[in-house]
Amino acid sequence: MNSVRAREALAIPKNSDFSIFNIPFGIGKINGQQSRALSRLGNAVIDLHHLFSAGLLDIQGLNGETLLRHNLNDFIALGKSVTSQVRKRIQYLASTQSTDEEFQTFVRALHPIESTSMTMPVEVPNYTDFYSSKEHAFNVGSMFRGPDKALMPNWLHMPVAYHGRASSIVVSGTPIRRPRGQILPPEGDQPVFAPSRLLDFELEMAFVVGKANPLGTSISTSEAEDYIFGLVLFNDWSARDIQKWEYQPLGPFLGKNFASTVSPWIVTLEALEPFRVQGPPPEKPLLPYLQEKGPHHFDIDLFVDIQLPDGSTTTVCHSNMKYLYWSMAQQLAHHTVNGCNMQVGDMCASGTISGPTPDSYGSMLELAWRATRPLPMPDGSTRSFLHDGDTVILRGYAERNGMRVGFGHASGTILPAIEI
Ligand code: CA
Hints:
This protein is an alpha+beta fold.
C-alpha cells in the first residue's frame, strides 16, 4: 500500500474529537471478543494488545497482560512514564514518520467504532463529588436560601465535596431507571414513597487518579497533576425531590447514588496540556496548602443535548470547564490534606459546571430556574425536569490552532420507574 494513500485511509474527520493530538484510552470488546485496552483515532478504535503482540509497542515497563483486562487500572498503575510513551508511540505510528511496514501493521490493529462495544474504562474504587463551580453553588444557594446567603461560609475557603457511590457509575449508553424514594409533597408534612418527579442531570467533568498515595500522606497542589491520569465527562444524575427531603444534615444520598454516567474514553492530561488556562483569582486569601502557582484550569467547551424519543435533539447548555473556581490540583490537595489515601482508578467529579450566563447553567434545576422557566423542546413540549424516554447527551472538546481534543459523548436514556 502506498504510504500516502494509506494515511489517507485513516480518514480522520476534520472535526473529530479523536484527532492525532488526542489518543485517549478506553476498554471495549471488538466484535464481541475479550475485553481489551483500546485507543481511538477518528472513527476507528486501536487494539493496543494487537500492537503489542506485533512488536510495535516496545516500551520499557509495558506489560502486555495489562492490555487484556476488563479495566485500565493495572495499565494506568504502570505510571505515566509508560502510558505517555504508549500515546506518543501511537502518534508516531499514525504519522507520516513511520515506515510503510510499521504503518501497514498499525492499520491492521484498527477496527471501526461500530464493531466495538465500550465498557467502563476503569474499576472505580472510590468516587468523590466536588462542588467547585461558584456559579452553580450560588444559583442553587440563591434558590434555597436567597442571594444574600447563597454561598455557605466555607465555600470560598475550601473545595467542598462529599463521598459518592462508586458501584453505580456506568458507561455512556447505559439506560437510567427513574428512581423511587421518599418525597415530601409540596403541600404537606408527611413523606410519600413515589417515583422521582424532579429528575435532573448535572454537567460535570471527572478526573481519574493515576497514582496512589500511602495512607497518612498528602499531595500538594504542585504534585497533584502527576497523580491525575486523565479526564472523562461525568453526568451526576440527581433526583431533586428525593435530595431535598433527605439531605439535611449529612448531604446527598439516595437522590444521587442510583446512577452516574461517564464517557468511555479517558483523555489524558498530556493531551489537554495545550488547553491549560488561568482560573479565576481567589476571592479570599487561601490557606497555604490550597495555593497554587501557574495555570491549572483547562479550556474545554461543554454541551448538554436533550434528545426526545422521536429523535429530535436540542442543545440546552453550553458551558466550559474553565469556569470552575477550584482547580483539580486544589481538589486533590484538599482531598488528601488530612492523610486520606487515593487509589488508582478513583474518580473525582468537579460538581456541576455552570457558567455566568443562563444558557451555560449545568443542570435543569438552574436552566429552568426551579421550574419557573421551562425549556422549549423541538416537538412543542417543554421541560423543567427530565421525562421518561428523554436522552441526555453530554459532549465536550477543547480546540485551539487547528488542534481538537474531545471526549465524545456521555449519554443515558431515562426508563420509567419499575412498578412495585
Ligand atoms: Ca454533583
